[in-house]
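Protocol step 4 of 5: obtain the predicted structure for the target chain.
Materials: sequence only (see below). No template structures provided, no constraints applied. The aim of this step is simply to have a reference model before the mutagenesis design in step 5. Sequence pasted as it appears in the construct record:
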Amino acid sequence: MSRTASPLDVTLPRVPLGAWTEAAVDWATDTLGPFFDGVAALVDTLVRPLTELLTGVPALAVVLVLAGLGWWLRGWKFGLGTLVGLGLVAGMPYWEETMSTLAQVLVASLLSLVLAIPLGILVAENRRASAVARPVLDLMQTMPAFVYLIPAIFFFGIGTVPGVLATVVFSMPPGVRLTELGLRQVDREIVEAAESFGAPPWMVLLRTKLPLALPTIMTGVNQVIMLALSMVVIAGMVGAGGLGDVIMFALAQVEVGSGFEGGIAVVVLAVVLDRLTDSIGDRFPSARAQRLAREA
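Step 4 output (structure tokens):
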């Protein structure tokens, strides 16, 4: 018995979005090969020496330096906690992997902020640029993290470089958004007072807006580092090394013990980096002034 055709039985044309994407990637690979080679060389030049430095220095020295930094920035309680936490990590068999992950996080965060902060300034000062950037940032923040690994593999192959570059793209949006937010929250009357003295726009930006926006910008720095740490672990899927490899191997082999040790190392590293960057932001004079104003 044949089914009566329904008016809703309409075949929609297929949009070859995947084919277009593959064509764009192929074109970029063929045309921009020297550029990608230069980017890969830059990332490798930054990551490799830092990794060798962190893994070459005795673990005790690294633990003491970070614990002393935590003591200075947040007090003896956090310094002691850092000493205990990193001492625990140093006592596990994955200290070199932890330092490799730290090097990747620092380099990825640095590159991300080098791109994110100027872009945040641009979108804060230009409404049209803000309107264009907003949907792009929304797309970047809602895209699954694993998707970023696909073009990284196409352009840079397997290894540390694609993992770091995928991390850079993944962690950029909060840096852009919070830089824009900090600049837009600066009191308009303060800006007008600076302009009334005849200061050019670039000086108003550098001497007035940015110092007042620094606490919010530092919150963006904190978020960039946290996202970079989470993505670097995922980047273990493409052979980026570090704790990502440890966790992925433990997952594949169902080794609960090594997976737990790798996870603890990630947690300790995340807590230390989070608290340290948060403390640095609180030490700016503008942050102290705003805190005193809220308390008053």
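Step 4 remarks: Residues 201-234 form the longest helix (34 residues). DSSP finds 13 helices and no strands in the chain.
Proceed to step 5.
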